[in-house]
From TrEMBL:
Name recorded for this polypeptide: DUF192 domain-containing protein
Protein source organism: Haladaptatus litoreus
PANTHER family associated with the record: UPF0127 PROTEIN MJ1496
Residues passing through the membrane, by range: none
Amino acid sequence: MRVVHESDGQSQPLAENVETADSFLSQARGLMFRRSIPDDYALAFRFDDVASRDVHMVFVPFPLDVVWTQSGEVQQVEQLSAWTGLAKARADTLFELPAGSASDVKIGDSVRLAE
């Protein structure tokens, strides 16, 4: 599984090493207590409906790019600082990536999971 970014007819992978956080526990834990993540990594949170989804950086010692999507369309992109970052947006899927990975992703683009 990988995370793919599509914009202006172009497609490029954002991450080739993808984990999903589908259970309540894995969603609550997120990337807390990890020392680092690989450059081609993403943690994908898939939800059954669109709702306000927040991300905090408590116990996450490295910065992240976070992308919120609704039906694959990007709604929000934020780079969160280690330990203190906090952001919220409406989404049915969100992606946590190494800082800088989503620097070219813009609201309205497509970001999705692909086999």
